[in-house]
Amino acid sequence: MPQRPTNPAPLLTVTADTLVAVDLAPRTRDRPPGPYRRLFTRPGTRAFTLANLIARLPMGMFSVSAVVMIAGTRGSYALAGAVTATGLAATALVAPWTARLVDRHGQARVAVPATLIAALGNLALVLCVHTDAPAWTLFAAYAATATTPNTGGMSRARWAHLLGGDPDALHTANSFEQAADELCFMLGPVLAAFLCGTFFPEAGTLVAVALLTTGVLAFAAQRSTEPPPRRRTATAPLRAPGIPPLLAVCLAMGAVFGSTEVVTIAFADATGHRTAAGAVLALQAVGSCAAGLLYGRLKFTGRPEHRYPWCIAAMTTLLTLPLLAATVTGSLTLLAATLLIAGMATAPTMITNMTLIQHRTPGDRLNEGMTLAVTALLGGIAGGSAAGGWVVEQVTPTAGYGVPVAAAATALLIALASTPNAAKSPPAQALWPST
Prior knowledge:
435 residues, mainly alpha, Growth Hormone, Chain: A, two-stranded antiparallel ribbon, 2 strands, 71% helix, transmembrane, MFS_trans_sf, membrane, transmembrane helix, MFS
């Protein structure tokens, strides 16, 4: 009869003359690190990522804080909405110009003064609201916040600079950044509403200003990972081959987001659960965030152009689920579940879109190209909100869920038209991750 060894790692079972060994020792030492762990082993990546997340969180706070602050003190949601819409329009005009300066002169040199100007604009808005200044001063103050730099774009530009020769790692980095966007825009409004409701109406804006300024200063201080300024080429991102269709898809994607938000609020209000609208919308962001992180762990061997229309097709298909849930059942709980599922196709679509923009934008104007994508998204959100609101008022909140489906279908048609070969069945390796 064999003796039990002194090593406690293997478990030995003796039956007749047969010796069976089952190794229960942990194998984490021999397991290769995952893609996200490998991503952040590069020097300086953790520092600039943490600073950027601090700077990015306020992006989901400013609008909600402004609406609550203005509506709470002036008693007019119409005025609050007009002020925030003015800021959105100003951002659409100023943001690409700011990004162009970032590409030309460097992130730290441009982002810091641009952030300080935006911070002063927000502080001026707080002062004007607090002192009951004339309404036109609110518009002027909030328009000054348009210089806020595209922090997510600057972070993606750093990853592209560090990982330019490793497409798999860049895919993981883009997936992480998209998940970070979803997380910040999910937590930002909740934090803003909590601060404004718990303390005083100006609290959300003041905390957002402090986070933005601190985060950008810390991010700019990480000079070792900053892309060097480059001499500007004659090719503008808008004129680069393949960029206009990608921006058109971003516009349609923004319409999906904007209409879904308005219609969900209206549907929750119609069912007597208006206060639950925020939680329902947060579930969609949760689904997108989780899918983005999972998508980043997959390794694809095919070109992103082949995956792109299939991602949009999946998003279009899944967006029919909220429409069916609202039409057939009228249940807010079931609607929330379908929005969670529908959100799972959002992040892969946006990740692939940003990857293609990085590939097709001239390297010396990468921030400008990605900021144009964000500007298109903002424009689409504004248009989608208006379209969703019109359908809700003229038809029903349930019918409003047809707007995001139509917007997603439009995005799919644009993608198919701009990629003729995408309509054909792509090779298997273009759709599925390699094993």
